[in-house]
């Protein structure tokens, strides 16, 4: 039940956000379409542009809209309703289908979404705790590989992986090119097969960089997964995944395939 339905006094921007959220849920503004412009919403609700901006920011924090282009026109785009499953252990399965796709692309296809990516590589000094994990000194640069991930054109996640410089050079990760097969396979082919992983999951608020990368307001909730991986002799990487809060469901699948299939069948039709 919304604040309006409870009869509570709320700021105008919250009232407008709730009205638009109800309309989105009812299908008035379908996923992938633009909301009315700020000017149109100002006229409809008879409020200032600042109030409309605050209302849109509130919808953004709830993971309902983002800024982007539709048909060459920039505006506020409606996100799909609900959460998208992300299988966090997909990339780690020893029996993973040996396609030319990386784990993100395979996962997107698994949930019926169209993946796309934008890749960047840089060499820089990482935060001290990451340097410690990968075995670099605090004044030493490491290789940082950043992948901006999109589902159906929608900004969805940012993956940032840190590699010690000597390891990256041996594997060929010090390149400005993305690797279609993924870095896990590249590490294995170079003799650094990952055999262990530790994941840490935290909730954080989007900072200005996160906001720009993920098309959310500053302060929007994020899920941050930090994965530290190792081969038999050393740490291979530290990877951080920044994903939209309220829009993702992270799933870890562990165990034998026969049992997993039973659980998957039991989960079919689950609702939030």
TrEMBL record:
- Which CDD domains does the UniProt entry name for this protein? WHTH_GntR
Under the heading SUPFAM superfamilies, the entry gives: Chorismate lyase-like, Winged helix' DNA-binding domain
Q: Which residues form the HTH gntR-type domain?
A: 10-81
Q: What's the domain of life for this entry?
A: Bacteria
Keywords on this record? DNA-binding, Transcription, Transcription regulation
Q: What Pfam families does this protein's entry cite?
A: GntR (PF00392), UTRA (PF07702)
Q: What PANTHER family does UniProt report for this protein, alphabetically?
A: GNTR-FAMILY TRANSCRIPTIONAL REGULATOR, MANNOSYL-D-GLYCERATE TRANSPORT/METABOLISM SYSTEM REPRESSOR MNGR-RELATED
Protein name, entry field: HTH gntR-type domain-containing protein
């Amino acid at each position: 039940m919304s604040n309006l339905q409870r009869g509570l006094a709320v700021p105008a921007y919250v009232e407008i956000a709730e009205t638009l959220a109800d309309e989105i849920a009812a299908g008035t503004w379908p996923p992938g379409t633009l909301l009315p412009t700020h000017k149109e919403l100002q006229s409809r609700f008879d409020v200032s542009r600042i109030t409309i901006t605050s209302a849109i920011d509130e919808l953004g924090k709830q993971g309902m809209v983002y800024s982007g282009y539709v048909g060459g026109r920039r505006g506020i785009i409606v996100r799909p309703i609900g959460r998208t499953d992300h299988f966090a252990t997909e990339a780690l399965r020893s029996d993973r289908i040996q396609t030319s796709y990386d784990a993100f692309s395979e996962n997107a296809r698994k949930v019926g979404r169209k993946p796309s990516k934008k890749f960047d590589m840089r060499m820089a000094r990482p935060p001290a705790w990451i340097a410690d994990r990968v075995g670099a000194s605090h004044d030493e640069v490491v290789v940082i590989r950043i992948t901006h991930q999109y589902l159906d054109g929608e900004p969805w996640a940012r993956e940032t992986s840190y590699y010690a410089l000597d390891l990256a050079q041996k594997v060929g990760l010090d390149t400005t090119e993305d690797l279609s097969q993924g870095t896990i396979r590249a590490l294995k082919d170079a003799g650094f097969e990952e055999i262990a992983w530790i994941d840490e999951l935290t909730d954080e608020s989007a900072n200005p960089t996160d906001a720009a990368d993920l098309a959310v307001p500053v302060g929007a909730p994020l899920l941050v997964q930090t994965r530290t991986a190792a081969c038999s002799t050393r740490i291979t990487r530290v990877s951080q995944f920044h994903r939209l809060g309220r829009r993702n469901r992270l799933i870890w699948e562990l165990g034998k395939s026969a049992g997993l299939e039973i659980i998957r069948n039991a989960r079919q039709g689950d609702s939030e």
